[in-house]
Design a protein that fits this description.
This is Flavin-containing monooxygenase. It is a single chain. The protein is of the alpha/beta class. The strands form four sheets. Strands 3-2-1-7 form a four-stranded parallel beta sheet, with helices on one face. The protein has a three-stranded antiparallel beta sheet with strand order 4-5-6, with no helix packed on it. It has a two-stranded parallel sheet with strand order 8-9. Strand 1, helix 1 and strand 2 form a beta-alpha-beta unit. The protein starts with a strand and ends in a 7-residue tail after the last strand.
């Protein structure tokens, strides 16, 4: 008998899981709580509970060549770094090309996932789903959880003494959609990962003043690297990975620091990471007009 596989979520991981199951002769059934595919990459003006949220202007920080599925390249006319709407368009083309949509049950919430009473002998799982107010129980031979981990924001208010008396507005980047919320304001962005820098750049165009606070620093690079190539095509190759893993840690650390500081001296801005060996990069693409 064909093995039945339950897949929870129809984002990037869910879609590729459906495709891989089909390739292996399995019978996938994907449950998606919303009415569309895309997961993280589907922009909505409202923040939905239990689902990742992104801002309107978000662009991938990896190039299309490095981000594409191995069996389905991006269209040639797509830009090197694609917007969230273009990623979603790509996922739609991927799903249509491989006939994945017929294996997805939309507006279906997974209520519970439990081992069957005879699990030790069968390895099967009992899954209860709900759609249109009606619950249904099914048995599957395997379960793949593809719901991601970016739906719960980290906002440790206890780390900011006095926040309860702060007269201004504060919110997590999960709730950021457009820069007009910063019009004429003094803005502090805490954290300088890619989202933090993107938001700071957008805010700087409309705000009175913008500052970024970082506790651990970061190596700041341009998305456009040597000879005009995307940074990840130059830096994240198998050859470069072999070199980094073969050299002693201190030498690798020095090489990374030397290479990234050729654009500007990180020490002048207090940005040198506390742990220099951790390759925590921040792509400052917006500052250079890309």
């Amino acid at each position: 008998l064909t093995k039945r596989v339950a897949i929870i979520g129809a984002g990037v991981s869910g879609l590729t899981s459906i495709k891989c199951c089909l390739d292996e002769g399995l019978e996938p059934s994907c449950f998606e709580r919303s009415d569309d595919i895309g997961g993280l990459w589907r922009f909505t003006e409202d923040v939905e509970d239990g689902r990742p949220s992104l801002y309107k202007s978000m662009v991938s920080n990896t190039c299309k060549e490095m981000s594409a599925f191995t069996d389905f390249p991006y269209p040639e006319d797509f830009p090197v770094f694609v917007s969230n709407s273009q990623v979603l368009e790509y996922l739609r083309m991927y799903a249509k090309h491989f006939g994945l949509l017929k294996h997805i049950q939309f507006k279906t919430t997974v209520i519970s996932v439990r081992k069957c009473p005879d699990f030790s002998a069968t390895g099967q799982w009992a899954i209860v789903t709900e759609s249109n107010g009606k619950q249904e129980s099914s048995v599957f031979d395997a379960v793949m959880v593809c719901i991601g981990y970016l739906s719960d924001p980290s906002l440790p208010l206890e780390s900011f003494p006095g926040i309860e008396t702060f007269q201004g507005e504060y919110f997590h980047s999960r709730y950021y959609k457009h820069p007009d919320v910063f019009e004429g304001k003094r803005v502090l962005v805490i954290g300088m990962g890619n989202s933090g820098v993107d938001i700071a750049v957008e805010a700087s165009r409309v705000a009175k003043k913008v500052m970024i606070s970082t506790g651990r620093g970061a190596w700041v690079i341009s998305r456009v690297f040597d000879n005009g190539y995307p940074w990840d095509m130059v830096f994240l190759t198998r050859f470069m990975n072999v070199i980094r893993n073969s050299l002693p840690g201190p030498i690798t650390t020095w090489l990374v620091a030397h290479r990234t500081s050729q654009w500007f001296d990180h020490a002048n801005y207090g940005l040198i990471p506390k742990d220099r060996y951790i390759l925590h990069f921040c792509s400052m693409w917006s500052y250079i007009g890309y």
